[in-house]
Amino acid sequence: MNEKETLGCREILEHIQTEELRSLTDTVTRKLVKVTTRSEAISAILTYSQSSCELLKRKKIKRDLLFKYLVDKGIVVSVSSDKRTIIERLLKTWGTKNISALMTHYDEDMPSSSSSENFSEHKKNQVMIPQVNSTELTPSLGASNHSSACESASSNANDLQLLGETFARWFYKVLNSQNPHMGVSAEEFGPCHFWDEAKLMLLIVTDDQSTKDELSGSQLVSDRLLVFTQSEYLLFNPNISRDGVFVKSERHGMVVVLVCGTIHRQNQHLGVFDQMFGLVKDPRFNDNYKIKLTKLKLHNINVDHVPALKDRPESEIKDLIAV
Question: Can you list the alpha helix ranges (DSSP code H) found in the chain?
Fold first, then answer.
């Protein structure tokens, strides 16, 4: 390991509980080295690990621990990133040599799995979201085939979740592209993605005060959202997973999507956000969804783990998803 790798791995190991640290020491040294203190354990682990990659991929080194390390260092990485992606980012940050070869060995040593992030690309400048069956999303269970009804309900629920995650991925990718510090071409974002009567309900919470604002109209709503990325240089980092995206369908046709994540400005971690979208199909444009309502809460707090909706109070979730 180079000097940066050694220092970084030491800092990460410092956050592991003592029992886990001793267990990791036994694994790395094959129980050939006896230690009595945390300091000795960390030194032994660093000495007998073949590389930083070989150490970081061990099960005792949790993905959330590595994510928190990057956040503390002001390094932006998607909250949806898997452990492999985070390790690769760490190695690049530390100036590790032969990263490609190390990550190849990483893949060979890890069991293969299908990625939940395998979604097809969507056409530029369009809200191309997988369509949910136009029939009732919650089927009747009073019919003779109860099993088929349950399977249908499960399928529809999965369709809804996919719809919400796909929309969230598209929305924040386009909004973040407006940030001049991103170094990418800005994609089209404007009133065309909102209904004319669209509404934005905004809540900004800091250490000493809360500020509320409400805007109506597609132009005003889209302009206000653009201010966050174009002028204030914010970067929204959504948790695109079942932990970070909640989706439900209202009886009158609106699909409600709730997303949580972290907020950054260049290398600064500023806090967390929760955003609700009320989506309604536009029959004039192949039934693509447009935003009719959005609620955005920005909270200036530190986090030591990936934000998840389950961490929010139930009353707060109910207020956010209420239409």
Answer: 3-13, 18-29, 38-48, 52-56, 63-72, 83-94, 99-109, 146-176, 218-230, 314-321
